[in-house]
């Protein structure tokens, strides 16, 4: 089992980037979270104990973290907690590490502008097109047709997300169009499709 933790604090060091033997990017930084408590004698909030974490972000998350996070930034980190003991010839201690699943700027302290990463679509194994009935070419063609009429949005990372009717700029009808044939109503009933009741109707 893994311990999942969410930490809210301030970046104590600029991210340091390295590359693993497999070519993956890893960004690491120190994160400090300081407890705040109310000092009744002083009548004010003061800093109390500070916890220190070593945060590691891998892959695309690591690349984006290295570009976006700087020392002093308030962040929220969610990831897997790892506590390990270490020792040298003259020193020993305990390291509290977080392998990040998500890193974000804490917008309680300021604003930020989001820019999506551009990633190529993942390669598909041989025969995958026959298994799901639609290959990458079909997906791209569908995306182009959908973008032409404004019903789909490309995510920029090799995936295409089709917007639901309610989010297509109000151009989708609120109710299904009236049927021109009497048999269509019976077909809809057989499929479990019902026209929404008018507002205020019982």
UniProtKB/TrEMBL annotation:
- Span-the-membrane segments of this chain are none
Q: Which InterPro entries match?
A: NA-bd_OB-fold (IPR012340), Primosome_PriB/ssb (IPR000424), ssDNA-bd (IPR011344)
Q: Where is this region: Disordered?
A: 120-202
UniProt cross-references to CDD domains, sorted A to Z: SSB_OBF
Compositionally biased region (Low complexity): 133-154
Q: How does it assemble?
A: Homotetramer.
| PANTHER family for this protein | SINGLE-STRANDED DNA-BINDING PROTEIN
| Protein name, UniProt field | Single-stranded DNA-binding protein
Tell me which species this is from.
Micrococcus endophyticus
Classification from the root reads: Bacteria, Bacillati, Actinomycetota, Actinomycetes, Micrococcales
């Amino acid at each position: 089992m893994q311990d999942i933790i969410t930490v809210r604090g301030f970046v104590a060091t600029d991210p340091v980037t390295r590359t693993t033997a497999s070519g993956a990017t890893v960004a690491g930084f120190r994160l400090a979270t300081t407890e705040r408590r109310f000092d009744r004698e002083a009548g004010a909030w003061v800093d109390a104990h500070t916890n220190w974490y070593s945060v590691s972000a891998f892959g695309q998350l690591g690349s984006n973290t290295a570009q976006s996070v700087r020392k002093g930034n308030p962040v929220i980190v969610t990831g897997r907690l790892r506590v390990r003991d270490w020792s040298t010839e003259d020193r020993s201690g305990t390291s509290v590490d977080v392998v990040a699943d998500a890193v974000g700027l804490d917008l309680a302290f300021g604003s930020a502008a989001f820019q999506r990463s551009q990633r190529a679509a993942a390669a598909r194994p041989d025969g995958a097109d026959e298994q799901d009935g639609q290959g990458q070419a079909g997906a791209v063609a569908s995306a182009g047709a959908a973008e032409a009429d404004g019903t789909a949005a490309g995510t920029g990372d090799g995936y295409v997300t089709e917007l639901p009717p309610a989010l297509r700029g109000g151009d989708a009808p609120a109710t299904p169009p009236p049927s021109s044939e009497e048999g269509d109503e019976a077909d809809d009933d057989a499929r479990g499709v019902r026209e929404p009741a008018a507002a205020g109707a019982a």
